[in-house]
Design brief:
370 residues; alpha/beta; Aspartate Aminotransferase, domain 1; 8-stranded mixed sheet
């Protein structure tokens, strides 16, 4: 369906991309990838960046870099997209799903500690910064040190978000970004592995390049992957990354406009910003309590708004209820299922005007009151 108001759409900026391609005419294509990596490093403050072809590939390589292998246990968030968890299976490891806490909607540190105690040894923790909102990293990193378990930050949705003035993806052993089509910065397919550990970076780049040895002929000593980012994807990243500050400001303005427009509907609430964190507000998300004349049936609301040209999406359907992961060990608080039951993502593209947000908000309130 073609939506008048898509959820998160980035038009192709032909002029900006063309300018970059002309600037790199006649040079080795790999320089586009290298310069994109350097720019991510400059923005985030991390020492080493490896650009790959997806956030999923980045998580896979991060797990491999931490020596996660068959039979190992990995604790991860249940309230996420499946790409956060599938790479654990790629390595033959065993996912342990951790429910959310209600403040940030991310991994609950208390449940995580219970899981770490009951499943020693846990080989790694994959914490997801859902919807660009920072998880409670002070608590999680404290547990990482206490139980000697390394942490991978899945910051796929969180480029530009900070926690105690540090960019997400740079706080733990390894960070992961995504530049998929709907992200705040897109390369129309792509991801990155972030680390301050030179040895990890070298291994990741080696594996992502089919583990080809540095010799004047093809030689491979270990299994590798065709995971490196393409130069054309990197060119889009070089063209777009300088827009990040303006995009972050635009996303905050979109959220504030929605807050103003929907203030009249008392059944709608927004996530609470933490004083120690600065989310990128990648998508505006809401919760709806069914009461009075307001009845929230997520699927019917999504369908009704779609019929009016408005694309919305329910919040993540937790991994522990997915058929693929129903047998996984799960530490529950009930929070993620409640979020899925009550939550909705609203159109958040940078092209939205104040009038557009007013139209969307009115349609949402009307749909809830039917």
């Amino acid at each position: 369906m073609s939506y008048r108001f898509p959820l998160s759409y980035t038009p192709i900026d032909e002029q900006a991309i063309g300018t970059v391609l002309r600037r790199y005419a006649g040079v080795q294509h790999a320089e586009l990838i290298t310069d994109f990596e350097k720019e991510i490093s400059r923005i985030t403050g991390v020492r080493y960046v490896a650009a790959v072809n997806s956030g999923t590939a980045a998580i896979h390589l991060a797990l491999k870099a931490l020596n996660v292998s068959s039979g190992d246990k990995v604790a991860t968030s249940t309230f996420t997209y499946v790409a956060s968890v599938n790479p654990i299976l790629y390595q033959g490891a065993i996912p342990i799903l951790i429910d959310s806490e209600s403040d940030t909607w991310n991994m609950d540190p208390e449940l995580l500690e219970t899981a770490l105690k009951e499943n020693e040894p846990v080989k790694a923790i994959v914490v997801v910064h859902g919807y660009g909102v920072p998880a409670k990293m002070d608590d999680i990193l404290t547990l990482s040190r206490k139980y000697n378990v390394p942490v991978i930050e899945d910051a796929a949705e969180a480029l530009g978000s900070t926690y105690r003035e540090k960019h997400l993806g740079t706080l733990a052993d390894i960070g992961v970004l995504s530049f998929n089509n709907n992200k705040i910065i897109t390369t129309y397919g792509g991801g990155a592995v972030l680390t301050n550990d030179e040895a990890i970076h070298k291994r990741v780049v080696h594996w992502a390049s089919q583990s080809r040895e540095n010799k004047p002929y093809y030689e491979h000593l270990e299994l590798g992957y065709n995971y490196r980012m393409s130069p054309l994807n990197a060119a889009c990243g070089v063209a777009y990354l300088n827009k990040l500050p303006a995009l972050l400001q635009g996303k905050r303005e979109i959220l504030n406009r929605y807050r103003n427009e929907l203030a009249k509907c008392q059944e709608i609430t927004f996530p609470i910003d933490s004083s120690s964190a600065s989310p990128n507000h990648w998508l505006t998300t809401i919760l709806v309590d069914s009461r009075g004349k307001t009845v929230f049936d997520g699927d019917s609301i999504v369908k009704q708004l779609a019929n009016g040209g408005i694309e919305t999406r329910r919040l993540w359907n937790p991994m522990h209820v997915q058929p693929l992961y129903t047998n996984a060990q799960f530490y529950s608080s009930g929070t993620s299922e409640n979020l899925f039951k009550k939550g909705l993502c609203l159109p958040s593209g940078k092209e939205l005007s104040s009038d557009d947000i007013s139209i969307i908000s009115t349609a949402l309130i009307d749909a809830l009151r039917v």
